[in-house]
Amino acid sequence: MTDPVTLNQIQKDITENAIVLYMKGTPEAPQCGFSSLVVQILSHLKIPFKAINVLSDPNVRDGIKKFSNWPTIPQLYIHGEFIGGCDIVKEMYQCGELQALLKSKEIQAA
Amino acid sequence: MAIEAYEIQQLIQTAIPDATLHIEDLAGDGDHYAVHVTSATFVSKSRIQQHQMVYAALKGRVGEQLHALSIRTSLPPSYA
Fold first, then answer.
1. Are the C-beta atoms of residues B72 and B36 closer than 8 Å to each other?
2. Helix, coil or strand: residue B10
3. How many domains does chain A have?
4. What is the pLDDT of residues B55-67, one digit of tens each?
5. How many CB atoms lie within 10 A of CB B3?
6. Pairwise CB contact (< 8 Å): A69 & B52
7. What kind and span of H or E run contains B8?
């Protein structure tokens, strides 16, 4: 059972930040290869994002899985919308779909 | 914790009977797999929904019993 406080916090974070990456570790020190890959893609595109380290809060780690109906980390949100995990983000990046999406949301490289 | 490739195959095949599967054991430890699922049931579903169908087929094992499952989904050539 995920507490409503956590779910509210998640809703708030993805609403208040254009891009949110739920990941294991930090962008500087990712603790998992899949999280690291998504950080690399976003960094390569020079896209600023808010990173949330799920390892620092077990409630968020569980909560985000329920919130998105998605069993794995990382998870990328853009403008409050769940984009996908590592495989989807990688696929979207490779075919240019991610870049197009960012452009359509008017998210600029920093 | 680990899972055999044939279990992954069975679970997906049961939930998505028309699925064509290609499973790769990435690290040889039964804990890191890549699966490519091709099915006509993915038609007009988003990528997220397609992956959710595969996760659902594996009944909660991903992220628990199975640490890493890389998923790729596609439609049969006749639909693409």
1. yes
2. helix
3. 1
4. 999 998 887 788 7
5. 19
6. yes
7. helix B5-15
Q: Report residue B29's pLDDT band, with 50, 70 and 90 as the boundaries.
A: confident
**What pLDDT is recorded for position B80?**
65
Note the ipTM here: 0.88
**Which pLDDT belongs to residue B28?**
82
List the structure tokens of B6: 């044939």
Question: A15 is in which domain, residue-wise?
Answer: 4-104
For position A1, what pLDDT does the model report?
Answer: 58
Domains annotated for chain B, with CATH where assigned, are 5-74 (3.30.300.90)
Mutation target for A interface from B51, B65, B66: give the one with most A CBs within 10 A: B51
Peptide bond into A74 cis (omega under 30): yes
Preferred mutation among A70, A94, A101 to probe B, highest tally of B CBs within 10 A: A70
CATH of residue A85's domain is 3.40.30.10
